Amino acid sequence: MKQHTGNAHFHPNRRQTLMALLGTALLPACGGGDVAGLSSGGTGSFTSGVIIGLGSVIVNGIRYDDSAASVSFDGSASTAAALKLGMVVRIRGSAVTPATTAGGLATATASSIACGSEWKGQVGAVDVNAGTFTLLGQTVHVSATTVFTEGKLDGTLAGQYAEVYGFLDATDGSLQASRVEVESSPPDRYRLSGVVANLDSTTFELGTALINHATADKPANLQDGQLVRVELQTAQSGGAWVATEVKVEDYTSDLDDEDEAEIEGAITAFTSAAAFSVNGIPVDASRIAPPTGLALGVRVEVKGRIEQGVVIASEVEVEDESELESQEFEFHGEISALDTTAKTFEIRGYTVRYIDGSGPTATVFELGGADWANGLFAEVKAV
Fold first, then answer.
1. Chain-centre distance of CA 100, in angstroms?
2. Average confidence (pLDDT) over 361-371
3. In the prediction, which pLDDT does 42 show?
4. How many CB atoms lie within 10 A of CB 87?
5. If 0-12 CB within 10 Å is exposed, 13-18 middle and 19+ buried, where does residue 290 land?
6. pTM over 0.90
């Protein structure tokens, strides 16, 4: 076995560490917890979480074949080619087949994949030391695993426009970003999501933002406590953002009885440790002994089975900061733009850096006798 040490750049401005590159061997499952990867037995599956691998899509330790899936972004038809690292998706598919080797990935076939960003607008203040920036006055938290495109967390970000994917912290209305797409030109519409508070006939609050919903397309039963996603005009009026559409985040139509389910995200509504919602999806944990520490805003993974639009939990795991910071990414595809001097190559549109050498921290190459060259089909794992 030949070994190397390396680093990966998912964007030229982001430094990551390449953990393993394999040509023919299976890779360990992505994800930082014991919950990841459903077992077989259900008639179908539902998975919600962050895309952590490409070459099909890998979410929550399951590699979904997306070749025949219908794909939608914010309700509009799209293609699997538009799915990128760090996007938060909801996948409906076949029953999950467990991994056949130790450390391998579970697999399934996706029938539909739905995706959408949480916030979109102009960046305000940037605090590099705190790992935050503001968007439409709301706080966005950036971690080591946040994927940036066309930008990075520094002073140049202020004043630019960003579309952010991630998980809402309902305790303060902030957003933990999993992907930030930076643009220099303004979008046609802004976007915010959050939990409705202080609703009256014309306005409500999302975090610290005041939303005027008087002329918006919205449900008749809009009420405090609902998780919503709001399309906004790009200019405020009277100190409020003017909504053009208010959509309640209700995903019960995606949940088919008896399907296996695995969801990752933040607790967006909390009644008790036995009854809460994750990303707007209701969870019943009354049939297990739930872990300590469950509360509004806590990041969790839940595994279970769907009954009448509710995920009946068989396992709940609280994701701690160290797990999130060590999140692994995985790529399946063809190597190109190999530069053996700079020790870089490209796969699935991302640049990966490696460093030749040996030692206990070295990257493992298992090429199965193949040449290390452009055109090699490889599986790449990185953090």
1. 26
2. 82
3. 54
4. 22
5. buried
6. no
State how far the Cα of 261 lies from the Cα of 282, in Å rounded to an integer: 12
- CA-CA distance, 32 to 301, in Å (whole number)? 10
CA-to-CA distance for 79 and 83, rounded, in angstroms?
Answer: 8
Dig out the tokens for 25 from the structure.
């061997």
Residue 249: closest CA among 233, 272, 269:
269
The residue assigned the tokens 């610290």 is 208
Residues 6 or more apart whose CB falls under 8 angstroms from that of 117 comprise: 74, 87, 163, 164, 165, 181, 191
d(CA 135, CA 190): 10
CA 296 to chain centre: 19
Distances from the Cα of 55 to the Cαs of 39, 143, 277, 278, 331, in angstroms? Answer: 22, 24, 30, 27, 6
Question: Identity (one letter) of the amino acid at 253?
Answer: S
Using pLDDT thresholds of 50, 70 and 90, give the confidence band for residue 102.
Answer: confident
Flag whether pLDDT at 31 surpasses 90: no
Is residue 266's pLDDT more than 80?
yes
In the three-class reduction of DSSP (H, G, I as helix; E, B as strand; rest coil), residue 7 is classed as strand
> What's the CA gap between 102 and 226, in Å, rounded?
42
Give the containing element (helix H, strand E) for 323. helix 321-325
Beta strand pairing call for 260-272 and 299-307: antiparallel
Q: How far is CA 254 from the centre of its chain?
A: 18
Residues in CB range of 348: below 8 A, 6 or more apart: 54, 55, 331, 332, 333
| 197: number of Cβ within 10 Å | 13
Q: Which amino acid is at 329?
A: F
Q: 373: exposed, middle or buried (C-beta count within 10 Å: 0-12, 13-18, 19+)?
A: exposed
Count of helix runs (H) and strand runs (E) in the chain: 1, 31
HSE-CB of 362 using CA atoms within 13 angstroms: 12
Give the per-residue pLDDT at 289.
95
Please return the burial class of 85, using the count of CB atoms within 10 Å of its CB with bins 0-12, 13-18 and 19+: buried
